Amino acid sequence: MAKITLSKLRHSYVPNPSSESDYALKEIDLDWTDGGAYALLGPSGCGKSTLLNIISGLLVPSEGQILFDGKDVTTLPPDQRNIAQVFQFPVIYDTMTVYDNLAFPLRNRGRDEAIVKERVMAIAEMLEVTNLLTMRAAGLSPDNKQKISMGRGLVREDVNVVMFDEPLTVIDPHLKWKLRSKLKELHQRVKATMIYVTHDQTEALTFADQVVVMQDGLVVQIGTPVELFERPAHTFVGHFIGSPGMNVLPCELRAGQPYIGTHPVALEGPIKGDAIGKTEVGIRPEFVSLANSGLPATVTKVSDVGRHTVVECEAEGQRINAVIDGVGPAKGSAVHLAFRQDQTRLYVDGWIATEAAQSATETKTETEEQAQ
Ligand SMILES: Nc1ncnc2c1ncn2[C@@H]1O[C@H](COP(=O)(O)OP(=O)(O)OP(=O)(O)O)[C@@H](O)[C@H]1O
């Protein structure tokens, strides 16, 4: 397995790119640690396949380098990169047995039959398909076919990286969660560097330790699922992750204080920089509550979503969601909305522009230091 480095990577499908918009991949710099579980998450057209093809060697980037364990592989063809790929649709040989399908990548590289058997049995056991080993692949259900396809990707021990490209697309919704958790478990057991490409936030957040969120050819944030939820670096991440997504509320800055209409909003911390541009307050619905005082609002919709209730409100001409426990107020009710201050952030031109709230311990330590 390998550490993967993408250095100043850019790609344009246009022969002589002259502006930012000519690039399908704007500049990307990142390090993927050996043995990590990563997801590339973003909507259709954001550049995921372009990046995947650059990593696998199907595409040579217009600019920048790709390194495996520090070795430049930017122009190496796919067969010299030692990569395993699992695609949207199962890639298996229907006429072969499940055993022979799993054995194929190893036999293809001339591995000893004893080693082939050992690896195939281990992978089959992990995937819970040992009872299918003698069956012809043609007779398998779609989810079992995809499991075998995954097994073929995982069976070799010598690959630099295993890449999954929307692998659950053809799987029935009720079986998806099973395969999702199986993949996570497989990563923990196999400990290979894995990259999972998807536009589905649940798949990305379940699988990956680190998620790379892309929009319009740009990496907008790299973080753990918790970091992406708690502190979106960009309003796009706030929208894209979470259900419902983060409230993004246009605001006006007056003497450094944001106002939603006539209502002042308290932020998590000081504003960074000069805050010139489009200013918005970002707060997740989970941190908006119904209170005795706060932003006056009218309830426009109440949805019971199982464990919680989503209360949709209108205030100062804007739609604001609150997620609350228990039964919500009736539609049309007049309420007040309170924003949890340490979760209320300012965004300028989409990017976060407030410093994080200091945790209680940090504040205490500083106070103690000052006292000494
Ligand atoms: N071969 C190509 N020639 C020209 N433009 C391309 C080519 N492949 C992709 N693009 C463009 O590059 C951008 C990124 O596309 P890409 O397929 O990498 O995105 P994606 O996130 O993988 O989307 P999807 O999930 O729909 O595959 C898009 O604007 C797309 O139209």
Automatic annotation (TrEMBL):
SMART domains membership = AAA
Q: Which GO terms describe its cellular component?
A: ATP-binding cassette (ABC) transporter complex, substrate-binding subunit-containing
A Pfam family: ABC_tran
- Which keywords does this chain's UniProt record carry? ATP-binding, Cell membrane, Hydrolase, Membrane, Nucleotide-binding, Transport
Q: Which GO terms describe its molecular function?
A: ABC-type ferric iron transporter activity; ATP binding; ATP hydrolysis activity
Q: Which family does it belong to?
A: Belongs to the ABC transporter superfamily.
Q: Give the protein name, as stated in the record.
A: sn-glycerol-3-phosphate import ATP-binding protein UgbC
